[in-house]
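Re: your question from the hallway

Yes, I did run it. Sequences:
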Amino acid sequence: MTTATLETPREAAAKQKVILCEGNEAAALAVALARPDMVAVYPITPQSSLVEHVAKLIADGKMDADIVDAEGEHSVLSVLQGGALAGARTYTATCGPGLAFMFEPYFRTSGMRLPIVMTIVTRDGITPQSVWGGHQDAMTVREVGWVQMYCETVQEVLDTTIMAFKVAEHHDVMLPVNICLDGNYLSYGASRVELPDQAEVDAFLGDKFVNWHVALDPQRPMAVDPLTGGSGGKGPSTFVRYRKGQCKGMQNALRVIEEVHEEWAQRFGRSFAPLVEEYRLDDAEFAIMTLGSMTGAAKDAIDEAREAGKKVGLIKIKTFSPFPVEALVRSLAKVRALGVVDRSVGFRWNCGPMFQETLGALYRLGRHVPAMSFIGGLAGADLTIPHFHRVIDATEALLQGGPVPTEPVWLNERD
Amino acid sequence: MDNCAVAQKMSPKDYKSDVKPIWCAGCGDFSVLSAITKALAALSLPPEQVAVVSGIGCSSRIPAYTSVYGFHGVHGRALPIATGLKIARPDLTVLVTGGDGDGFSIGGNHFLHACRRNVDMTYVVMDNQVYGMTKGQASPTTAPDWEGSKLTPEGAGINPFHPLVVALAAGANFIARCSSSDPNNVAQIIAEGIRHPGFSLIQVLSPCVTFRPEQKDWKRMVRTAVVDATDDPARAARRLMTDDGFNVGKVLYKGSREPFRPGAEACFQVDDLEAGFAVGQ
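Structure:
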């Protein structure tokens, strides 16, 4: 691992270029800085320009990676599995139906503990047919053992993409990582971005930490992933050991993500809440909870509500998988009512998935906090400041102690 | 194919929906849509006796533009969906529409097995050698040195897929190529494909004027194939292996393999289904 001297944030920041770019280009530039050995791609809206930017960086000689233009997403991730088994640092991006088609190798990637990094340019699930943004794709695969971090801004996309490689390859994690960037809003939204210096990124990431437990090792030729579970294999204990190991890696990821964000802040002078961000929460009576790019409009609404005398704060989840229960419980302890805004649907519980997960954290809190589920931003629908005022007002009403709604509020139903 | 023998005179517009296509001006798919409606009218097929199934892509929007049964399915999976539909309702005339990306890359495996299974359906592939909907990437039929894609700026570098040769080897029963520049010929060949038992593959050269503007020259490059349909696979294979891809307008192979489950009956009767829905009447 690296032994480079740590520069001060001011010195590191001075080496950074300031550019204007879209989220998809920011992700591609970050991937180039992370120097993967192999990228596999299949285009899909709204991911296509991301992988086209990667292809251009390779064609222009600014990135030294093998690129495989595969025949579908199932093949994309399978190609990367082969690459990772050969010890390569690997990357891809997809979304929505592409992620659905990728599901079989997606499931196996976390079990094999392959540190593949993949951007999900989040897109709503079909049917009905739609090519627009939403979190349904990433939410649907939240229980498959990948680390998933959601970004709020284009800068956070760039920085998190680089950090993702360090998290994935960390010895105590060794798991695949998704960076979730909101389709349309972040993928095509252009903003000012600070581009880190290559040498600084090299020093930050250090040498590639190869997944030697399954990589081609000339000292130890082996067949990977044999049959287990008693059907001619070693019996259920092997299977259980794998699953326990995955869960331990996920729990370790919570600590490693915090450490990696801390090192990033020290080196580059930009800090992001690694797990859970609090905004104007310390003296708040109640809070709303957000995920991804919607948070910008939500923070503006919070500021306006504060000016109007409402004691409201905001809790943003960045790391959704593993679910940051302890960090969230610390934030929830500060409030007496909660409104959770999801950009996807939890069909089983008739609420948003983040709301459902938060109910588990509220149980750990050990104190009754009335909470409501809001669902908005489906299939590219806008979540604007007025929408968040509705969320704030409805959540504030819970403080009065009346009945807590059991149905979600559908924010774009009349838009 | 007796369901073609319907007395009522139909017009192509009877098969068009009210939805206006959103293809680019000059797209070859307009002609193919028109040819499909002409073929259905020529066969006087009642709209409720026809289903058009597609996957994902520009040309896969066709079901929405027709007045017959239609399903805009999953990317690459139009053929399995159509297989299920045809087996459950053998009385329907089943058309599958899509592009070279949908059919030969992400759906390539299904293409092989649809040819093998030889279910009685007609697959119209609008081949423009590009992924149009995702804005211009190389497809399986793209030449290896085409540098117009941002995804493969130095060319895809891999051999193109030859759908007609593969179809023959896999067991398709009817193989033809035509050009969208001659919609009447496309209509005639689609009608012929529908009437021929088993799996019919019709490759239509259908230019993408946005991402492959050079394909506007295709209408000058194509030539009417100087061949008669053969039922000899070896002869068809020799013909296809020496073909440059621009021989159009003719059926290149017409086999005599028995289709999958000939004479099968529907797994339910339409009258029974209607009775089932007639709740409370």
